[in-house]
Write a structure and sequence with these properties.
It is a single chain. The protein contains 12 helices and 14 strands. The N and C termini lie far apart (about 45 Å). Strand 8 and strand 9 form a beta hairpin. Helices cover about 35% and strands about 25% of the residues.
Length: about 290
């Protein structure tokens, strides 16, 4: 790696001011688990890294609102989310995904904000946050704004963040009676990057689906909701017929791409099967 400058501001205002929006070699760094790999591989050679580790002001930690919603600071390590009793109580699908998210060494360092800002379609947290209706708070030179996670992710390793904007928190609304599940298929070890990820959140009443959020990732250029599948499921009874129809609809709607973890045709068949499995898991039935 070539030499670079490392600066350690103690406030968000100072951090934003140190990021040059016109210089792509100046980047913020939190856990650095992805950025350091890029640097070692020679894909990215920074002139300056702006460390966020010394920033306070509510960017690290988990807060529960009166209605059961969660606000998770962007600098909160994934391992803290994994072991949080409050997250397990109010959004149990989130800590469940952590056991197979890379390995414990990465989870001890990687942060919630980094997992979202990196824009990697293979990450497990973004599709789950989307299925749960998650939103991010963003700060930049022009002030603060808020985005739904589904609007944050715009393409393959691309987000709606301006070069000098930072995510400060992830908010998950109160889930009420919503039940969620996430399933992924890995071509290697259980904690490998997935060939496919499917996240589902369901509201069911009287044996019928009131509403559904269905998100596919890893097999697609970005984590993306499947509105046609959601519309198909709304008001339907969760039986074998609707599960098959949902799987077929998902393969028609999703933009599937092939890579080293499988061809597009292979991933399309995985999606056809795993949409149904994730829906059964979210409904409480055996997947």
């Amino acid at each position: 790696m070539i030499p670079f400058e490392l600066v350690e501001p103690t406030s968000l205002k100072d951090a934003v001011a140190l990021i040059d929006p016109d210089d792509p070699t100046v980047r913020p760094i939190a856990g650095g688990t992805a950025l350091m790999l890029m640097m070692k591989a020679g894909v990215f050679s920074p002139r300056r890294l702006v460390s966020l580790r010394k920033i306070d002001g509510g960017t690290n930690g988990i807060v529960v609102s009166a209605d059961g919603g969660l606000t998770i600071g962007a600098l909160t390590p994934l391992s803290a989310v994994e072991h949080s009793a409050e997250v397990a109580r109010h959004a149990p699908v989130v800590p469940r995904i952590m056991a197979r998210l890379s390995n414990v060494r990465v989870r001890n360092v990687a942060t919630v904000g980094g997992a979202l800002a990196h824009g990697d379609p293979h990450m497990d947290l973004p599709p789950v946050a989307m299925a749960l209706g998650g939103r991010v708070r963003i700060v930049g030179a022009d002030g603060e704004r808020e985005l739904a996670v589904e609007d944050l992710l715009t393409g393959y390793y691309e987000t709606a963040l301006a070069p000098n904007e930072l995510i400060t928190s992830l908010t998950l609304p109160a889930q009420g009676k919503t039940r969620a599940a996430y399933m992924k298929v890995t071509a290697g070890s259980a904690d490998d990057w997935p060939a496919l990820g499917v996240a589902v959140a369901l509201d069911t009443t009287g044996g019928k689906i009131g509403s559904a959020r269905v998100v596919v990732s890893a097999a697609t250029p970005k984590a993306m909701r499947l509105p046609a599948v959601e519309k198909l499921l709304a008001g339907a009874k969760l039986d074998d017929k609707i599960l098959q129809a949902a799987g077929d609809a998902a393969t028609e709607e999703a933009e599937i791409i092939g890579d080293v973890r499988g061809s597009a045709a292979y991933k399309r068949e995985l999606l056809r099967v795993y949409v149904g499995r994730a829906l059964r898991a979210a409904s409480g039935e055996q997947a």
